[in-house]
UniProtKB/TrEMBL annotation:
Family membership noted in the UniProt record: Belongs to the nucleosome assembly protein (NAP) family.
Key word Cytoplasm present: yes
Positions of region (Disordered): 143-185, 217-266
Segments of skewed composition (Basic and acidic residues): 154-166
Compositional bias (Acidic residues): 222-266
Any one GO BP annotation for this protein: nucleosome assembly
Protein name, UniProt field: SET protein
Protein's UniProt keywords contain Repressor: no
Subcellular location(s) per record: Cytoplasm; Nucleus
Organism taxonomic ancestry: Eukaryota, Metazoa, Chordata, Craniata, Vertebrata
Organism for this UniProt entry: Oncorhynchus tshawytscha (Chinook salmon)
CC annotations in GO: cytoplasm; nucleus
Keywords of this entry: Coiled coil, Cytoplasm, Nucleus
Pfam families in alphabetical order: NAP (PF00956)
Amino acid sequence: GIEAQSAVVTTIFSDIIAFLITEKEQQEAIEHIDEVQNEIDRLNEQASEEILKVEQKYNKLRQPFFQKRSELIAKIPNFWVTTFVNHPQVSALLGEEDEEALHYLTRVEVTEFEDIKSGYRIDFYFDENPYFENKVLSKEFHLNESGDPSSKSTEIKWKSGKDLTKRSSQTQNKAGKKRQHEEPESFFTWFTDHSDAGADELGEVIKDDIWPNPLQYYLVPDMDDEEAEGEDDDDEEGLEDIDEEGDEDDGEEDEDDGDDGEVCPR
């Protein structure tokens, strides 16, 4: 009895001691993990600072080449509207009249602010056109010290009856709810929309995807032309098959004529 009880107490006491030791080891491990994590975070911050310096250096080195590219692009009519129409995400935002207006777009420039992480600006240069008075439309994206995004843009001076943003809204209202989901808002609505700068996908697409190499989208083959060529090839193959069948039929007829001549007696 007493020995058994003593053994149980000893076992319980041993378990408590083991638990306390394990708890202490875990707490020490957590403290060490926190120390190591602080070192990792410090290195990450250091890496970000050094990467930023490298990006700033190469941004400056790239500028003369961006300028030269813009001069060469200016020699190609409708380069930018073709590039935007060929880009799947941008084309989804373009209505027919947007495309017409973008035929007057002669130049696009993306400028990252000197410290890069605080934001960037996109400038669109236009020839004289029937839609608006502006020669340049710009949109800027800013990130303040606390990381809150914001944007601002040029006010578009629409010519009388040519406001594509209003026309897009009226078209959607007349077309009803079903049509509203199919009809894209005007591309130019993007200039005046500052409701959620942090979720502005179009700005990011132009800066990070199109601007580094617009030629890759300008040279995307027109799918309608490819389909038309495919249909022409199919038609030609069909004609070849018909000709081959005709030749085979002629050959069989000749053989039949030859057999008849041999069978007939004199």
